[in-house]
């Protein structure tokens, strides 16, 4: 699994791109100035870093994602389960549910996910 990681500031920046893509790098610099109080040079530095990580691409001044927000966070979740629970999803779920009472709706959603998985959906 490729090591896609972002710090908190990079994640806020990434959210802007995911919400607005495709977005011109000029427009991105304007938005980050408004929302994050960044200078243009900061925007381009962070953009280059995230492009180098393979999360986004800047093609002719148009910024788009290489991996979607959903895929990015899915990979982060997989990595967390791998690193913390030796890849055991049941161990993760047991730890997650130990301090929290699940609603009947949440339980049914989990059951549906398992059924769908078993049926190959």
**Under the CATH scheme, which class of the largest domain?**
Mainly Alpha
- Low-confidence runs: none
Placed side by side, the strands forming the largest sheet appear as 1-3-2
- Count of individual domains: 2
CATH topology of the largest domain: Arc Repressor Mutant, subunit A
Order of helices and strands: HEHHEEHHH
Radius of gyration: 18 Å
Q: What structural class do helix, strand and pairing data support?
A: mainly alpha
Helix content: 55-70%
Give the integer mean of the pLDDT values: 93
- Rough outline: elongated
For CATH, the homologous superfamily of the largest domain is named as Winged helix-like DNA-binding domain superfamily/Winged helix DNA-binding domain
CATH architecture of the largest domain: Orthogonal Bundle
Describe this structure in words.
This protein has helices at 8-20, 25-36, 40-52, 69-85, 89-98, 104-118, and strands at 23-24, 56-59, 62-65. Helix 2 (25-36) packs across helix 3. The chain is built from six helices and three strands. The model has no long low-confidence stretch (mean pLDDT 93). With 121 residues, it is mainly alpha-helical. The longest helix is centred in the middle third of the chain and has 17 residues, at 69-85.
Summary, kept brief:
By secondary structure, the protein is mainly α. Helices cover 66% and strands 8% of the residues.
Give me some keywords for this one.
mainly alpha, 2 domains, Arc Repressor Mutant, subunit A, three-stranded antiparallel sheet
Task: Give a topology summary.
Layout: H1 8-20, E1 23-24, H2 25-36, H3 40-52, E2 56-59, E3 62-65, H4 69-85, H5 89-98, H6 104-118
Helix pairs in contact: 2-3
